[in-house]
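Reminder to self: C-alpha cells first, then the designed residues, so the page reads top to bottom the way the pipeline ran.
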C-alpha cells in the first residue's frame, strides 16, 4: 500500500468510512477507478469505505454516491492543481 499518496480527504489516513463513519470492514476506495485507479492512488484521490458503502458506490442503482464522490474528488484536486491538469489526467469534467 506504499504506492498510495496521502488522501486529499481530511483524516482519511485513519480507518473509518468516509460516508457513514463505520469502522467495520473498511477498505480503501479509489474515487476514479478502472483505467484511472493508479492516478487516484498517486494523487490521493481515495477514501476509506465500509463494505456497505463500497457496494453502494459500485452497485447502487442510481450511482449517485459514485458521482458525488467524483465531484468532490475533482474539487479537491483542482484546489491543489487546476482544472486543466484534472482534465489532462482524468479526461472528463464531473462538475
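Designed residues (95 positions):
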Amino acid at each position: 500500500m506504499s504506492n498510495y499518496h496521502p488522501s486529499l480527504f481530511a483524516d482519511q489516513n485513519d480507518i473509518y468510512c468516509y460516508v457513514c463513519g463505520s469502522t467495520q470492514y473498511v477498505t480503501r476506495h479509489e474515487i476514479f477507478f478502472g483505467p484511472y485507479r493508479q492516478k487516484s492512488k498517486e494523487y490521493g484521490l481515495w477514501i476509506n469505505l465500509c463494505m456497505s458503502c463500497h457496494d453502494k458506490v459500485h452497485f447502487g442503482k442510481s450511482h449517485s454516491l459514485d458521482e458525488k464522490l467524483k465531484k468532490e474528488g475533482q474539487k479537491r484536486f483542482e484546489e491543489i492543481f487546476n482544472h486543466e491538469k484534472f482534465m489532462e489526467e482524468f479526461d472528463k469534467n464531473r462538475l
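Residues 26-89 form one domain.
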